[in-house]
């Protein structure tokens, strides 16, 4: 049932394009990619439409996970979204697509994931909602922070006690 609706919408997109109604076709494709965020064919179609109307940055965004995105399109996408995490999030992909991509797109995505991990706050983890910062594995990962906080608390406590002692001595 859902696949039929998708096919029907794609038929309407093709009809819109034949009539020159690119805006209507863009809206229909936007709805489809929202409903099927992991469908690489829809992304390629959306990128081709943005390419046709001259929107290079959006062509780079929607073509990022395809093999036919040009370096100019990718550069425009990166310029529009300078942060690696922001680029990763605006791709609006829910599952890790690495096993579905061609070699160029796979290398591009791997580079973006590496940049996002370096940019912080943490390495990339794939969740049901898409890419998110990876949470620490266990309390042992947090041990250095806990020890630093404990030492800081002891130092502050000793400083307060010393200040109280000095004030009492002065009076």
Count of strand segments: 2
Report the mean per-residue pLDDT as an integer: 88
Number of domains: 2
Q: What is Rg?
A: 25 Å
N-to-C SSE string, H for helix and E for strand: HHHHHHHEEH
Helix content: 55-70%
Report the uncertain regions. none
Largest sheet: 2 strands, antiparallel
Number of helices: 8
Strand fraction band?
under 5%
Strand order of the largest sheet: 1-2
* Helix/strand structural class: mainly alpha
Alpha-carbon distance between the termini?
86 Å
> Can you tell me the overall shape?
elongated
How would you explain this protein's 3D organization?
It is a single chain. Helices cover 70% and strands 5% of the residues. A hairpin with a 2-residue loop joins strand 1 and strand 2 (130-133). 20% of the residues are buried. The protein has 171 residues and is mainly alpha-helical. Helix 2 (22-35) runs antiparallel to helix 3 (40-53), helix 3 (40-53) runs antiparallel to helix 4 and helix 4 packs across helix 5 (71-80). It is built from 8 helices and 2 strands. The longest helix is centred in the C-terminal third of the chain and has 32 residues, at 139-170. The protein folds into 2 domains: 37-133, no CATH class; 136-171. It has a two-stranded antiparallel ribbon.
